[in-house]
């Protein structure tokens, strides 16, 4: 009832973006809900192709072809949509709307941060789950979280100097032996049934990522001393206990973190890589390993580590010189970075042209929970000066902060200071969105991804003949 009332209040634009699939029963399990939705979505897509298959969605310029395909509309992605000015909408809902509508650990919406289980349900189904549905999903994820012995042995054998993202990716790759899809495919399953084993893999991977990530953390920074989770809690808090973090404040931060990093439409490198690998009918384990390896790049997910590194370097330099970190010294350090031919991590975006709402909600979290934190004040001062510096520099299309600019300082506040590990947390979260879409790729029977590439010679000839 509550859900229906809130849905009725959704803004017009949101209704325009929303899927045509009706709300299913509030008592249904996740699999039951999806089972009802699949034929409807298949029909919707079939109709879309029949009605509009030959319509033109956009053109491709030479700049776009050479420049990483920015703005080229050539991928179907159901779980979220990004607007350059407004930012992300998850299944039609903005971040503040998700915070208002999605169940929390304690109970109804509004009582703290939404849980990752809730955003997983929303991304998979397009529906706002009830608290009971979320609790059922939490239990299901815990049941699926066991790691095979060879995966834990492999993780424990890795050098502690190996980057945590490499360890994380290897850990998931080792779990691929558990893939239901790979087994079903080799047993000759009919293509109309692909979604069933994909569903199992998607939930299994999401469930296993938390213990893999925790193991990497404990191996790298705590001599391999492993800690038990607490399955009386939710996915986030259980993960926090396995990491060795035990405070309600950090639990809430982890919920916020895992929700807002989950999805950012399909063209970003980690989502796109997952989608591309998955489109070959490689199973969700292999597909998401591809996504993780894309996330590990400094222009993408690794930027959250780079931001903390940049702030530490800045502080070290001015502490050593006996100078205060303020607008003037930050500006000076920013120019040193730019003049050295490096990027300012945490600023700029391939699509966004305004401050990232994922940055804004983390800033609000900081104002609420750590307003006097020294590092937060530095981040806030950077926010004041950096758009001006980057505008003066004149290169970047978007001088405003992105999600990675703020996440590290919040983690640091709670004593989670091993910043080389931060991208692993991003990787735990991004699975929720990228794999929800892999599920729909299989359920809708989307084909192998294979865009056309061109040579420089071809482009020259083509343009000269025009
Ligand atoms: N600092 C310095 N220069 C920047 C810049 C920044 N933060 N952002 C963009 N530029 C430069 C680009 O390097 C490019 O320079 P060249 O012409 O010399 O190649 C120029 O400005 C134009 O780039 P753009 O069109 O504004 O941006 P792109 O779409 O090419 O790239 C990036 C988007 C996010 C990769 C870019 O803004 C960047 O490198 N930012 C810093 C790294 C970062 O924060 N990455 C995380 C992004 C969010 C994310 O994916 N999180 O996971």
From TrEMBL:
CC annotations in GO: mitochondrial matrix
Pfam families to which the protein is assigned, alphabetical: Citrate_synt (PF00285)
PROSITE patterns recorded: CITRATE_SYNTHASE
Keyword Transferase: yes
Keyword Transferase included in the entry's annotation: yes
GO MF annotation terms: acyltransferase activity, acyl groups converted into alkyl on transfer
GO terms, biological process: carbohydrate metabolic process; citrate metabolic process; tricarboxylic acid cycle
Keyword vocabulary terms for this entry: Transferase
Active-site positions on this chain: 300, 349, 404
Domain of life per record: Eukaryota
Family: Belongs to the citrate synthase family.
Annotated NCBIfam families: cit_synth_euk, PRK09569.1
Record's protein name: Citrate synthase
Species of origin: Pelagomonas calceolata
Taxonomic placement: Eukaryota, Sar, Stramenopiles, Ochrophyta, Pelagophyceae
